[in-house]
Amino acid sequence: MISRRLLGKLALGLFGASLLGGTALAQSMPAPFDNPGAVKIALVRYLSTGDFFQAYLSGVEAQAKALGVELRVLDSRQDAALQADMVDQAIALGVDGIIIQHGLTESMKEAAQRAVDAGIKVVAFDVNVENDAIPQIEQSDHDLARLALEQAITDNGESWTAGYVYVAGIAPLDRRDEVWKEFKAKYAGINEKAMFGTLDNPIANSVANQARSVLAANPDITVMFAPYDEFAKGVKIAVDEAGMSSQVKIYSADISTADIAAMREPGSAWVATAATNPAVVGEVSVRALAMMLAGEDTGHNVIIPPTLITQAQLNDNDIKNMEELSGKLPQFAHAEVAIPAWMPLPAR
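RESULT FIELD:
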């Protein structure tokens, strides 16, 4: 049986042939991708600091290149008003589609609607724009939090003193927070001694400054739930400086090569994370947008399933970077999500 992925690779091969003067692609690709060079899409970013977002961008770029479309990247650097203005800039540029990456509901809801009103197809990754016309690209944030917290229960039992890193108003963090609340309700022995967090740049260093004070005031904390890897990096800095690496265990979400190195340091407190491949999430974001442009239904929620990654797995398999992680944990390397048969995929 020929898989969707194989068909996609065949389509990618046909794409290459068309660039060499062949006509197969024009016959096999739906409009507007029968003339992909005329298709323009924009990525409008709120968060861009950290390895996760660089990898996400690389996935967006790779899938856009595979399709042959023009990509514009607009980066607001965590300025909510500027991000809304950048949606208007993308509309003025005459793009066919927009990916909204993170942001705040209150600032992006009306901007997203303006794009829809202008006849532009829009998808949103990890920001709830409260619009039925806009599919939500999600990492299954509930599962990310659940996998990490289940590992915390496995490692530490059902009773422990916790610190929790959280910033409200960011859709993926809010979804992860829902699971944290469920776990605290289910396991009465979980004692949350401190909640803190910031998205001030540089995020890891800013969180480290907070975590130093938290650990000094609460030396009985044994578990830190930091469900974003920049949060976890900051907590680890503070734990290391306090000499508490053997006392505190850190559980996170997301992964990068730098995170792998930090988790594999001798005696590292960072023992587990749950993650999707951010490059794959970027690819899925473009694929979902392309499906909309081709008149296909993605469904309202496009969900990429996560993988639990433990310090022990990384050490046992001698995994040193994202490439080796994908090679040795195949479930992390690819998501069979939003892949119609005609879709050309990035070369692997």
